Amino acid sequence: MRRPRTADDIEELYARARTPEERRATAQRLAAWAEEPDPRAGEVTPALLFVSAGEHLTAAGDLREAVVCFRRAVESGQYVPPDVRCYLHGGLLRVGDLDAARDLADELRRERPIDGDVYLLVGENYESTGDLRAAHRWLTMGVQRAVNDVEEGDDLDAAEDAAGLMAARLRVRHALDLPLDEYDRVVASALLASRERSS
Q1: pTM of the prediction?
Q2: Where are the alpha helices (DSSP H) in the chain?
């Protein structure tokens, strides 16, 4: 009987895969692991293995095959942080299936995720595929959610979420040539303070 798969197994494969051919072989191995009997015996789930396989295929340029892996991860019904659907959303955007990506984003939005990384990942998915308006909308939603959580004291991670979301949002706003707003000024002040401390 095989030993349980671990996060170290995934990291080891990741470190060795450099070329597109190596990434494809790694993706094939990860997908095979996900289909082994009783895969839940290890610390990694089939969903995580399929997501990892999809990421390798994306890096190799095999975008449609990556979407297949991301779909299988979602279909498993298992959790991959921040939400397994974020990976499928990015894959759908990269293959140009904009309607399916929008439907998935709408599904996520209606659920009002509490994890700021959902907003960050969806926003960065849009940013990386050139839809800066959608990226700005998602990052703004995430910032507002995180700031509200900070003000209400509901989430210990909210301040960290807010900082990351504000920085990504500032980058997108700069690309859109938008003027600084109150959130942007918070990031600018933090950067200035950091530079002053290090000088």
Answers
A1: 0.89
A2: 7-16, 20-34, 46-60, 63-75, 84-94, 98-110, 116-128, 132-152, 158-175, 182-198
